[in-house]
Amino acid sequence: MPPPLHTHTKQYEIFHIIEGTFLFQKDGEQVTLKNGDSISIPPGAVHTFKNVGDEPGTLHYELLDAGKSEEFFQRLVAEIATIEDIGAFFAAYDIELEGPPL
To answer: What are phi and psi of 47, to 5 degrees?
Structure first.
């Protein structure tokens, strides 16, 4: 499932497409990226993405600075079924939910 439309208040993200085709939305504009393409998402940019190819895709991304990202993802995977207020959960990690996934 693609991530919801969201904003990182403190982190800079860089996505590198390793294989496949992905649709990214950043600040209301959409772009399709393929193997070898990259996109940078500065703090405060409202964004999301999804795989739009016929096959599974692979991407690599960097979060600068990493902050509490490892803890965020570990807790999200372990607790997703029991999180009552997903907005508050994200906010605790400096991520603001802005809308549904693509």
So the answer is: -155, 165
